[in-house]
Target: mitogen-activated protein kinase kinase
Amino acid sequence: YKTDIKDMEHIEELGNGTCGHVVKMRHKPSGKIIAVKQMRRSGNSDETKRIIMDIEVVLKSDCKYIVNCLGCFITESEVWICMELMDTCFDKLLKRLKQPLPENVIGKVGVATVEALAYLKDMHNVIHRDVKPSNILLDTKGNVKLCDFGISGRLVDSMANSRSAGCAAYMAPERIEPDPQNPDYDVRADVWSLGITLVELATGVFPYQDCKTDFEVLTKVIGTDPPSLPLDKNFSPEFRDFVVCCLTKDKKQRPKYTKLKNHAFIKRYQVADVNVGDWYVKALHRVNDIRAPARHPVRQFFTIQQ
Ligand code: ADP
Ligand code: MG
Model:
């Protein structure tokens, strides 16, 4: 139904990104608590058209792996996109836990992301362009959902601006150094970003973390072997191979979603019984427990002395 931007009440800041910030808000008439992505507008009508198109994609989506979009407000200077509120994203979670995620949880993230990206391509002919841990959300019920189509676009769009979009750190080699014969990029650029994301979740650190600048990252992506899962850890052969497939440097050799959906890693975790919600709640309790004694160091010291 009709509602006004004045009906929205600020609760707290959820985070900042390159093209705006996300705020937890209350819709006063209904009492509903939601997440609102607030972005500045340059006022250019092309840009507004693109934003509305992106929102339409999300509004029309009924994929359980895509964050639910509730509508938007467009003012003179800003665009607000209203979404269902999730509990956290995988970037915040990694920083909170300060340790790698177990493979079975990563398996569920892989399934959700591949399904969401395949759905966007098949149903809306959209590529995401900004796949990374902060754009994969989760809640205590165990839902894992992809968000942020702020820079996604239709494949038919001119690719003029395509290189400026997305986060350098997760960018596929062909986006850094396009083939002059075939400069367009396709869904496989998102497949690369998914591979980087999964390695980050499995190791707890961003694979190019030693690089000081974006330029250094891009040079490494082009000039070195792709990241892979550390050999001394107990990952399944399916998981290892899935990462190798996603992080194939030559995009022509890199699989698209039809192939990925049939990969043993995805097949395995589609049917595996993994309670992501339960794991998340317990993991949070664990970090809270580890921190708790540190708040009373004096008392603890005294006890030890006794
Ligand atoms: P980025 O994705 O680059 O970190 P964003 O502005 O897109 O920047 O998002 C900022 C933060 O807001 C994210 O890291 C995420 O944790 C949080 N966030 C985004 N959307 C939601 C949502 N629907 N529910 C809960 N948190 C969200
Ligand atoms: Mg985001």
About this structure: Strands lie at 8-17, 20-27, 32-40, 69-74, 78-83, 88-89, 126-127, 136-138, 144-146, 153-154. The chain is about 40% helix and 15% strand. The first strand starts at residue 8 and ends at 17.
